[in-house]
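Model it.
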Amino acid sequence: MFSKMCSWLVAAGLVFGLQVSGAIAGPVVSGTTASGYAGQTSLNPTLSVAFDGTDIDASAIAAWDFKLYWDASALSLNIANSKMQIGTNTHTWTEFTGNTLPPTVTETVGGTGDGFYTLSWVPKDVLATVDLSGGITFTAAFDINAGAAPGFYGITFGDSTAASPFSALIDAEVTEYTYDSVTSGQGAMGVRVLAANPTQVPEPGSLGLLALALLGVARVCTKRQAGRASA
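Modeled.
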């Protein structure tokens, strides 16, 4: 009974720790931007997490809280077509959630125009850990909604207005790190919606000038041909 209670307390402590920001040297988080037009599908911005020189023991992660937030009025996440790379191994999302880790996965679009996706992983065995020391690269599959206005739409790993706002990691030593202290200089994950480029049609004035120029060239050619014939 005592051992079961200890296991429960440790698990509860890990879950609680995910809600508390840590002030330690954490991983470097960086992102890329994908560009496309309204209505375009399968754009692939990435979010990468590197653990070199951190206080986290990335080889023994005991709990992991992965969150994404985006503007649902412009973008839609196709999580089934997204991929997660851990070290050198890349998995489709179905493989990742079904075989690599046993997480609880939820995806929800809020009612305020914001979309968010969360993946929370705490092992059933409290002594189990996952090795993330090779780094993480999440490749998203975002669709641009029809009618999305041109501009940059950031995809972040935290939302200060949410109940449990930021992505977080806890290692086996219960050292915790949240992604919220990452600097903007690392680059943003996002999608840039480009303005549509309609086929350019010359204005009436331009057409007139073009016609006059062609007519002038034709006259010069005609005169040269006539001069050669008379010679």
